[in-house]
Every structure is written in structure tokens, then in C-alpha cells.
User: Which sequence fits this backbone?
């Protein structure tokens, strides 16, 4: 695994963007009446897969919006998005470990693809929830440096689970200003 350099340039493009699942429940009138945006949280899990022969690297984002209501956590939105990247000479930037489930990748590239995947998920959530109560609450901006520090340098290459574990709690979600 190497970092991109002038002698080893990075050539990356988006190959595909897909929303595998996005479901939401519009807030009940009780929640709407007493809604407190400080009780709305977004957590997500990032997983990866790759195909070295095809120079493909996939970032899966499995996220969930939850709201604390009457002492219980109410699921407001669940999404699974995948962004696929074509990275020329991927094997120069990604080292697959012997178990074929873990890898090491250039932090520069990892930050780029994870940030891009989060932006794609933000756009998909905004588009798919137009006209609903939850639409007014964007996926928050995330300081990638902080997030990347929480990631272990070795990540599993598996398909996303249906329900994410709370791996990273994003900053508070704030209502969009009109």
C-alpha cells in the first residue's frame, strides 16, 4: 500500500451510486407536537468491499436516525447506500490482509471515498424524504479527521447488515433554516 504521489498518481472516478434501502416513518402527531431536535440522533456504520481485478472499491453506509421519545428510541429513518469507485491500479493503494476480509488503504484515499459516500447518502436522504417531517433534518456535516480516527486501519469487507451497530455518533442534527 502506498500513498498517491507524482510518480504514483491517483486516478479515481465514481463507478456507481445506489440506495439499497431507505425507509422512514413520518413522525406521529404526538412527536411533532413535542419535537426536540436535540433528541434526534444519527449513527452509522461504514463497511467496504473490493475487487482488485476490476479496480473496484465499494463503500457501504448503513445509517439510522433515532429519536428519544418517552424514554424509548424510535427509529425515524434507516438507509443503506453504496458508492462504488473505480481506482486505477487499486492494488497499489490497497493491501488485502491474509484473511481476505481486512485491508489497509492509503488514509488520503480512504478519507476521499468515505467523505464522498457520506455526501451521496446525504443527497439520497434529502431527495427521498422530500415532503416529509424528517426532510427538514439533514444528515449532519462530519469532521472526517475525527471520524477517520475512530476507524480501525483494518476494516472488514462484508455486505452491510440490515440494522447498523452504533459505530459512530454524528454531530447533532439541526433543522434546516428556510
Assistant:
Amino acid at each position: 500500500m502506498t500513498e498517491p504521489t507524482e510518480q504514483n498518481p491517483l486516478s479515481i472516478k465514481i463507478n456507481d451510486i445506489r440506495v439499497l434501502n431507505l425507509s422512514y416513518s413520518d413522525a406521529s402527531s404526538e412527536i411533532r407536537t413535542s419535537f426536540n431536535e436535540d433528541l434526534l440522533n444519527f449513527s452509522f456504520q461504514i463497511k467496504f468491499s473490493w475487487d482488485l481485478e476490476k479496480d473496484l472499491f465499494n463503500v457501504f453506509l448503513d445509517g439510522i436516525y433515532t429519536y428519544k421519545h418517552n424514554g424509548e428510541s424510535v427509529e425515524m429513518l434507516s438507509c443503506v447506500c453504496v458508492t462504488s469507485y473505480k481506482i486505477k491500479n487499486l492494488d497499489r493503494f490497497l493491501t488485502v490482509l491474509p484473511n481476505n476480509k481486512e485491508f489497509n488503504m492509503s488514509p488520503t484515499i480512504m478519507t476521499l471515498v468515505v467523505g464522498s459516500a457520506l455526501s451521496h447518502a446525504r443527497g439520497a436522504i434529502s431527495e427521498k424524504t422530500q415532503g416529509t417531517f424528517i426532510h427538514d433534518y439533514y444528515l449532519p456535516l462530519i469532521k472526517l479527521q475525527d471520524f477517520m480516527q475512530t476507524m480501525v486501519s483494518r476494516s472488514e469487507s462484508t455486505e452491510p447488515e440490515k440494522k447498523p451497530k452504533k459505530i459512530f455518533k454524528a454531530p447533532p442534527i439541526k433543522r434546516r433554516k428556510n
Q: What stands out?
A: Confidence is low (pLDDT under 50) at residues 152-169. Strands lie at 12-24, 40-51, 56-69, 72-87, 94-96, 103-105, 168-169. DSSP finds four helices and seven strands in the chain. The longest helix spans residues 107-128.
